Amino acid sequence: MKHADFRERQVLADLGRVAPPESAPDPWAAVFAPDGWPETRAAATAVLLQLIPETSTPDQTAEDLWLAYRQDLLTQPAPIRAALMNGFDHLRRRGLVAETCQPLPEDCITHPRADLEQAPIALARQMTPAEVDHTARPDYGNDAAQHRAALATLLADTRVTYLPGEFWYPAEVVELVSHVPGAPGHVPCLAIILLDALRTGDLHGSAGFQLQNQFAEILALPQPARSVLLAAFRHIYEAERNWNPSVPAAALPIDQTTLPCVALP
Fold it and tell me: Rounded to whole angstroms, how far apart are CA atoms 234 and 258?
């Protein structure tokens, strides 16, 4: 089945990373086995949650699973727990499982924002003087001195936070450079864009726009920048229930059009 919707692809990809569908020939038996191991039950639950969208029919027994074993599922390692909770929540929002199957927002998160921010802050502050100079000039050189001064102030801030009420200096040039993979300052500018998106829930849509237009380029970045940026994108996906960038699916395998689960650097 082809899934054009990014969120659904992401949900299914994460569940498949927990357990591919063929790994549990009889997932219901594995889920409800009275002496089953929590890890086995989590894997079988991942399989079941992948199968439900294939029928497009509400599954009434999923609520029994939720009520009986939700606490067991919440004890799983963070990537597994988040994949399962996002799976339940996505199916609930589609009307394929009961409204009862609603996880808490924090249960859907792999890495809390507080644990994420230091890495993109450090990445942003690695911008070199030459990159600062380049970043100040992409708007045809207009107001380059003001942009350069504002960028210096931003990078000197230990949290790399835009000044309240400031929507132009240096945000305009940071945005412009973040659109150009390989340009001097591109990765630090992406880190600044993602820091703002993490704090605002991607209020301006900049993170979603970057992902849908630079997905392949971001996946190809060297470490640690790759993991830093991907972890930030994943947090936005997990925290913002309506965040659904138009990442092209084409005929690519699902793991090439969804966010991998990465360890924090």
Answer: 10
**pLDDT digit string (tens) for 135-147?**
999 877 789 999 9
Residue ranges in 19-61 assigned as alpha helix (H): 27-32, 38-55
Query: Residue 70 sits in which domain range?
Result: 6-108
For residue 234, what are the contacts with CB-CB under 8 A and spacing of at least 6? 110, 111, 259, 261, 262
Among left, alpha and beta (phi > 0; psi -120 to 50; other), residue 83 is: alpha
d(CA 195, CA 264): 15
Q: Do 172 and 79 lie in a common domain?
A: no
Tell me if 213 sits within 8 A of 246, measured CB to CB: no
Per residue in 208-257, pLDDT tens?
999 999 999 999 999 999 999 999 999 999 999 999 999 887 667 777 78
Same domain? 103 vs 120:
no
Last residue of a domain, one of 76, 108, 140: 108
Which letter does DSSP use for residue 256 in this model?
G
| 3-state class (DSSP) for residue 123 | helix
Residue 253 covered by a domain: no
Separation of CA 24 from chain center: 27
Location of structure tokens 């502050």: 125
Ramachandran quadrant class, 242 (left: phi over 0; alpha: psi -120 to 50; beta: rest): alpha
This prediction has a pTM of: 0.94
As a residue count, the chain comes to 265
Structural tokens at position 193? 């864009």
Rounded distance, CA 85 to CA 102, Å?
A: 8
